[in-house]
Design goal:
Largest sheet: 14 strands, antiparallel
Number of strands: 18
InterPro entries: DUF1329 (IPR010752)
Pfam families: DUF1329 (PF07044)
CATH topology: outer membrane lipoprotein receptor (LolB), chain A
Organism: Pseudomonas jessenii
Strand content: 25-35%
Protein name: DUF1329 domain-containing protein
Keywords: Signal
Number of domains: 1
Oligomer: single chain
CATH architecture: Clam
Number of helices: 7
Order of helices and strands: HHEHEHEEHEEEEEEEHEEEEEEEH
Amino acid sequence: MISRIKFSAAYFFIMSAIAFSASAMATGVDDLGKSLTPFGAERAGNADKTIPAWEGGYTTVDPSYQKGGKRGDPFAADKPLFSITSKNMAQYADKLSDGVKEMFKRYPDTYRMDIYPTRRTAAAPQWVYDNTAKNAVNAKLVEGSAGPMPEGAYGGIPFPIPKNGDEAMWNHLLSWSGTSITRDARFYLMTADGQQVMTTDGKAIQEMPYYFQDGSAQTFDGDYWMIRLLNIGPPIRAGEQAMDRANLNADKSQTHIYLAGQRRVRKVPNSCCDTPAPSTAGVMAYDELSVYKGRLNRFNWKLVGKKELYIPYNTNKFFTAGKPEDVLGKRHLNPDVLRWELHRVWVVEANLKPGERHQMVKSRYYLDEDTWQALLGDRWDASGQLAKTLWALPAVMPDIPAQASVSSGFYDFMSGTWFVLDLLTGQSSQWGIVERFKKSDFSPTVMAGQGVR
């Protein structure tokens, strides 16, 4: 636990330790694709050569890969450089998030981080890079009814050279991981006494209209992310459905659920923020999905700067495991199947605005500089205690190409429980890339028509 005094001291120490790198401060739009990658990351490696230069990412497709099936681990032959444990964590403290440090304190005998060679595998199609370059010139933040939102952005990272925390978080929300996707996925809650509870066994379709290659900023209607989930288990939840349509203006976002017992579709009135998400059986809040989802207007967002941090990366090994039991420990994910690497991340802090309400008054997010995906996040409650740490596991998918954030979850330091969202391990369908869905596939009418009981 972190007391108010300890939290304050830690806060000022971290704030003084993190600063914008000189190269990031000196670069601009003209540097995209040159000293910067097409997404705005520093192309060069770091001074001590523990982070290599970006050379275009990883785009070599395994010839044995079957479209829609399980992807292998292209770096299975890699060996850990070293491991961080509770005994040597102090040696690496400046490159560890507060949540990770707390995990070492709570589970000193079992929690471990195996550190692998850093591989900057992030990649995207050329048309996404081209759109990102256009966005760097044309996109701007405007104030919508639900807070700041991008205008003039489409089909790429909206703000590859961000000026503030709001722009950085929109980069995360609109990060690239493919356009039209199908997957089978299971959600698991792990109780404080180590019991494993499967809350959802589902089939999902997902789409990002923001990344339709034939679209434009002028024709885009604002619905940037859509998903529909059908539960086939556990038995008590079989037949339930959940559908989300996220809009740039969060007041236009919609969530619908189909309750099999009632045989009807209902619109969720408050699908945001710390409201429990029905698709997770109420275990996870809406704004904790994929580390962070949803509206930005309840918090003041501060772009603190960039630093080097050990984060989950290229975690294909996790998804090639045979069954969920191979990756789920009693207190945390099995360290044997996780891959951690040293990368540069953007640090963004969120502080609750005066007059707003939220269970977590302060959060800190770590966004991978190469993809803009938030891969770690920490949240503090009103008493100043570190209450939760969030994480996401990205895998390299050269067939897209992308470094796509897939499974995510949290460790709850208050209750001792933890949760895994979108566990693809052991599933035959893992992030399958498909043709564009019909717009009606994400409508309440189709939900009702496909309802079963």
